[in-house]
């Protein structure tokens, strides 16, 4: 059944690519279930059903973790070939959200940080507005030094309950840095931190916690992403329910975060993807607090225990911006796609080659097929 669904998705995407090429950015009227989707005419639909995360192999072909199997593609994601053995029964990367990130380090080592769904449990007491202490979704890591043939050094990084995370990079000095979120049972909200490895995933050190206050099962500091700045510092952007991203700065490769402050980047209650491009620019893709087409977005609480502040749930538009000064200023956000009633959220951005950006929406419960776009950087920075 799953193979049939994936095949139907692929057919829908290919149909959308054909119709989209004729629509010049207008809504694709004949595409099933996505009649209200609009794409910027500078965007090109990608005819692939994998949506990342990806890494580049030594020959610039694509690597992708399909469930718990590393696979490789030499035709830009149209066909895939298994690489090596299956990783572990506990590695079950799902199609929705960002439940695992992996990278291929400079020496070829492949490192995966993932949420382990073995024993998964989430329970929140709405009457007391607090999580049950038995909540469980652990954060683990595993690595391969032979191109995915075998996997070793599997270890738990964080017990308790953790959730989607968007940041996993290798710094210019070789450290691996993963930025993650954690549900604090005592604080009754989310907090974030980073894990740093100086030996390519054999051992990890946790940073200080970043706590922005609040109370609720979607309150606090959530779903961080990270890039390295030109001066070697790290920049973390953090999802909040406060109409904007907050940022944290580390001067020691993620071991300590000492500058923690709000940004002027308006954002709904949804995460961003932040990336350093080959051009040197920073790229940011996210859901803004209000709609460019519909204006101010209504505020709603999904449940009495959601958060202290009532946030914007605007997820119908996906916006893209660039920075030439390390995040100090950003270009005017440009909507690359919108879909009435859709959920173009939990984005992922991958630079397939210098200046060629692949953009995906990885939360497709309302949006079928999931969004998969190719964007030429220079078309959006003119």
Taking all Cα atoms into account, the compactness measure Rg is 20 Å
Write down the overall geometry.
globular
At the first level of CATH, the class is Mainly Beta
Please name the CATH topology.
Answer: Neuraminidase
DSSP summary: helix tally: 2
Class from secondary-structure proportions: mainly beta
Unreliable parts = 1-32
Taking strands numbered 1, 2, ... along the chain, how are they ordered across the largest sheet?
1-24-23-22-21
Strands, count = 27
> How many domains is the backbone divided into?
1
Please give the share of residues in helix: under 10%
What composes the largest sheet? 5 strands, antiparallel
What is the strand content? Answer: 35-45%
CATH architecture: 6 Propeller
Order of helices and strands: HEEEEEEEEEEEEEEEEEEEEEEEEEEEH
In whole angstroms, the N-to-C terminal distance is: 45 Å
* pLDDT averaged over residues: 89
In short:
The chain is built from 2 helices and 27 strands. With 382 residues, the protein is mainly β.
Overall description:
The structure is a single chain. The chain has 382 residues and is mostly beta strands. The chain has one domain (2-381): 6 Propeller (Neuraminidase). The chain has two helices and 27 strands. It has helices spanning 2-23, 377-381, and strands at 37-39, 44-45, 54-56, 62-66, 69-73, 81-82, 100-104, 110-121, 124-125, 130-131, 136-144, 152-158, 162-170, 176-184, 189-197, 205-206, 222-228, 234-239, 244-250, 259-266, 273-276, 282-286, 317-323, 334-339, 347-353, 356-361, 372-376. The strands form seven sheets. Strands 1-24-23-22-21 form a five-stranded antiparallel β-sheet, with no helix packed on it. Strands 2-27-26-25 form a four-stranded antiparallel β-sheet. A four-stranded antiparallel β-sheet has the order 3-4-5-6, with no helix packed on it. The longest helix is centred in the first third of the chain and has 22 residues, at 2-23. The termini are far apart. 44% of the residues are buried.
